[in-house]
Each structure stands twice: as C-alpha cells, then as structure tokens.
Amino acid sequence: MTTITTVGYVLAGLLAAGIVFIGARFLVAPGVAAAGYGVVPDVDETAVRAYLSVKGVRDIATGLFVGILMIAGATHLVGWVMLAATIIPLADATIVLRSGGSRAIAWGVHGSTAAVMLITTALLLF
After folding, report:
1. pLDDT tens digits, residue range 25-57?
2. Count of domains in the chain?
3. Nearest to 106, CA basis, from 115, 95, 116, 117
4. Tens digits of per-residue pLDDT, 59-110?
C-alpha cells in the first residue's frame, strides 16, 4: 500500500467512524443531532423523531458499509463507494439551504465533508 493509499484509507476510516457517530447521535440525542445537521425540527413530534431515527440508522449502516469494505481490503471499491456517497453531503447541504437552515452548516459541515470525500476518492482511485 502506497503512502497516498494509506492516507486515503485513514480518511475513509475517519469518515466512516464519523458518520457512525453522527447516526448514533440521531438515535440518542436527536435534537442536538438535528441542530448539527443545520435544520432544527420539533423533536417532540413523534413523526419527526421517527424520521430522525431513520436517518440515524441509515448513517450507521453507511459507515459500516465503508468499514466492511476497508476490512476486506477493497481499496478501489472503497474509493468508488466514497465517490457515490459524496451525493449524500451534497444533498444534505441542498436540503439545509432549501429548508432555511444555517448556511454556515450547509457549506461548512456538509460542503467540507463532500470535499474531503472527493479528496479521499482521488487518493484511493489514482
């Protein structure tokens, strides 16, 4: 494994761990997690809590998918999955902006996550 690939693997691992943490936070502290996402819903509504729980479970699964591919040593596949998954933070930024949420979070959190994911993709594929 080259140094470039190792850096890509470290970044992929950090991204995977980060999204698992974020997903768990949506399950344990949905109000805090929603604020960190950039849109603050009424978490006292049962339907809202249900959607936040769905997001949490899906975030955890997404992180685990990447982790499994890393453990399997599927470097290029991790890169391709990262590239495909970059749509998630880009869509998140769009959703936050469209919903009147924080522009700073839309670009600072979701936009920078997408940028790091693209860098990670490049390190793993080239």
Report:
1. 999 999 999 999 999 999 999 999 999 999 999
2. 1
3. 95
4. 999 999 999 999 999 999 999 999 999 999 999 999 999 999 999 999 999 9
CA distance 51 to 7: 35
Q: At which residue do the structure tokens 């495909």 appear? A: 84
Residue 44: inside a domain, yes or no? no
Q: Do residues 31 and 85 lie in contact, with contact meaning Cβ atoms separated by under 8 Å? A: no
Rounded to a whole number, what is the distance in angstroms from the first to the last CA of the chain? 12
Asked if residue 38 lies in contact with residue 68, where contact means CB atoms within 8 angstroms, the answer is no
- Domain membership of residue 89 (yes or no) is yes
Model pTM score: 0.94
Backbone φ and ψ of 102, nearest 5°: -65, 120
| Alpha helices in 29-45, H assignment, sequence order | 30-37
